[in-house]
Amino acid sequence: xxDCRNKKILILSVTVMFTIFAVxxxxxxxxxxxxxxxxxxxxxxxxxxxxxxNITASAITDGQTxxxxxxxxxxPQTITSLSKLNATIKNHDDYDNYKNTFDCLNEGLNFNILIxxxxxxxxxxxxxxxxxxxxxxxxxxxxxxxxxYLNIKSKDSAFSLPASINTLVNNTSNMVSSxxxxxxxxxxxxxxxxxxxxxxxxxxxxxxxxxxxxxYYAECxxxxxxxxxxxxxxxxKNQNDxxxxxxxxxxxxxxxxxxxxxxxxxxxxDDYDLYLKSFINAINKEKKGAKxxxxxxxxxxxxxxxxxxxxxxxxxxxxxxxxxx
Length: 325
Hints:
4 strands, mainly alpha, rod-shaped
């Protein structure tokens, strides 16, 4: 009878202990499972938030380039949003089974943020001498970011940057290529302008020493201070010097934005060329009929030449005004 009673007590004790352990393990398993489920849900939420921020940032793409005006507004907001999210993830409690996932999220976000920081730097400093290196950095940051993101699983699907980021990176390359091309074109234009301005100033300086009122030589010939042949020789030398300068002037390469000033000087040269021809014709006539020409006849003889000289001086003044406007 006693043995039967002891057996019942033993069985009851074992049953109670088993029940206690079973309940404990059930509670423990529920706690752990609940914690891991909560962790997985949080990871899923972080991933959705990251994807949403990246997709929003990709709105700065514009055809095959980037809308820099929009980028200057959107990128700082994107950087701030990702940085806040990363700070939250860094401060998250570690779970052994998900520690690697959180580490990958953290490292991936670091490179994700660097993509936008580098892109913003490119947009704000388009004339930077190392802009090509900056473009390569954007590509490297994108690849490094995806390397970490691809190690993260969300509901059995791999996580990565959205496809729109590839377009964004490609457009960044296109934009920088445009920056570099524009910079080179501007450098060429500036060099051409500088070369033209120097050549123009050289021509103007030489022309200023050539152009003159040649009537002085005719007066000297009338007074027998020099012969008509000497006077004509001096005028011819002036014409030769001018023709040599005109030839040099015609060889100057004219930038598109300097056509106006070039045309103005060409008109002055055309005026002076006509003046020279008219004056040489007049002085040769005077030489042949010097003894029969009256003062009035001489005045009429040089009237056309004087008119062309006045026109040249007037156009030369307009040229100087245009040059300094």
